Amino acid sequence: MARESMQFDVVVVGGGPAGLAAAIRLKQLAAQEAVELGVCVIEKGSEIGAHILSGAVMDPRALGELFPDWKALGAPLKTPVSEDRFLFLTQSGSLRVPGLLLPECFRNHGNYVVSLGNVCRWLGQQAEALGVEIYPGFAAAEVLYDDKGGVRGVATGDMGVGRDGRPTDQYQPGIELHSKYVFFAEGCRGHLGRQLMERYRLNANSDPQVYGIGLKELWEIEPKKHQAGLVIHSAGWPLDADTYGGSFLYHMEDNLVSVGFVVGLAYTNPYLDPYEEFQRYKTHPNVRIFFEGGKRIAYGARAIAAGGLMSLPKLTFPGGCLVGDEAGFLNASRIKGSHAAIKSGMLAAEAAFVALRAGRSADELDAYSAAFQESWLFDELYRARNFKQWMSKGLYSGTVMVGVEQTLLGGKFPWTLHHGHADHECLRPASECEPIDYPKADGKLTFDRLSSVFVSNTNHEENQPCHLILKDATVPVALNLAKYAGPENRYCPAGVYEFVKNNDGTDRLQINAQNCVHCKTCDIKDPTQNIVWVTPQGGGGPNYPNM
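Above: the chain sequence. Below: its structure as C-alpha cells.
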C-alpha cells in the first residue's frame, strides 16, 4: 500500500520540553508577524507526557522567556524549593555538607519541584491553543531524504505488522510528513538522531557522549514526614568511590515524593546492577525513614546524556537540527536539563522562522548554532564543562576539584578536560571483578523488576516485530555471557534481557521486548554495540503518571 503524505513548514519529532517549546515559539513568531505557518509535533507515546521521566527540579528561566505570564496561565510549577540538603552516605551513616560550602550548582533557590510529564502536558495544551498540530501515538520510524542528501521529512511506522514482519489484517502503512525543516527532539539517544549523527558525522569534532541511567519512583508518604519543597541529593553508598552516581529525593505537593538514583554508564564491573543499587539505596537509615508507611505509585527509568558542552554534536544539517537531550544539552552539574531543552528549542525555532520568512528550505540553520554560542545557555554549560570529567576521577578527588572550580573559580578553570572513552568501552572482564550480592526485595520498600514494570504502565502490542535488534545473534552468548557474565540482564532496568537454558543445556538470550520502558540503556552500554534500539509501534511503551 502506498503511503499518504502531509506537508508542513516544520515537523517536530518528539513531544518533550524541547520539541514543544520549539513548536510554540514558531507559532508565537508567526502570530506576531501575522503569517501562516504549518507546525506539526509527532510523539511516540500514547499521549504527551506518557514517556517523560525526570527528577525534577526545574529552573523556570527558559519557561519565563517562552511564557512570561506562565504563572497566570496555570503552569504546573506549584512547589518552590524550600530547602537544599547534600549528603555523603556511608553504609550506616551520612555527612551533610554545610550550606555555605555547597557549590552554586546545588543551590535551588528560585527553582521548583515538578512533574516534568505534567509540565509537558501543559505545554502541549498551550501549543494546541496556538494552532500546533500534535499527533501522539505516532512514532517517527524513518528519516526521508531529498535527492541532494538533505532531510525532507520523516515517515511514521507502519501499524499492524506481525511478529514475523508480515502485514496482518489490521495493517496500516505509515504516513510521510514532508516539511521544509525537521526538528529532532526524541530525547537521549534518539533512534533517528543516532542515524543522523552517523550520516552527517555530527559528532566528528566532539568528545564521546557519556551517559547515566536514571531510575525513579513516585511515592505517597505519611503527611508528618512530608516537607513540601525539600530537595535532598546524595553521593557515596551504595556505590563505591570509583563509580559515578548519586541520588535525588524531592518532596512535591500533596505528600508526594519522587526518589531516584543515577548511575554513570561508564562503570567497569559487569556485575553492577543499577536497578538493584537503587533498591539498596532506599534501605539506608537516612532514606528509608521517609518511605516506611508510605505507598509506591509509579516507577520508570531513562538514560541521560551527561557529557555536557564537550560532547555536544554539530546541531544542524541540511533540512534539520537537533534540540534538547537529543543533542545532549543537560547540565549534569546542576542535575537539570528541562530549562536547557526549552531554550534550545526556542533558539532553533527563531532561526527557522527567519529562514522560512526568507523563502528558504532544506538548508542548514547556521543561525541556530550561532545563537546558542551567544546565549546564557552556552555560558552555563561552559562553566560546567569539566564536571563529569572531574567526577570520573573518583568521588573524593572529583568532589574536591568540582568544589574548587565551581565555588572558588566560578566555573572559570583555565583548562578544559576531555572524555576519552565511550561508555560501552569501559566494562572489564568478569574474571577481573567481584560479584555483587544484592538483597532480596521485601515488596514494601524494595521491589523486583517485574512489579516495577507493572507500575510503569508499560504495554506493547505483542504481535509486532521485536524493536531490540541484534546485529549478530551469536554475540550475547559467545562473547557477552562468556566474557562479561551476561551484563544485559543487569544493566536493563525492566527485565527485558534474560539468559535461559535450551533443552540441550546451552544458553540463549531471551528478549522480553514487551517489558521495555524505552530507557535506551541497552543501546548505550552493550559492550560490542550489538544491540540496536529501534522504535516500536506507536503508542507502546510506558504510560507515566506524574513523572
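The chain has a mean pLDDT of 95.
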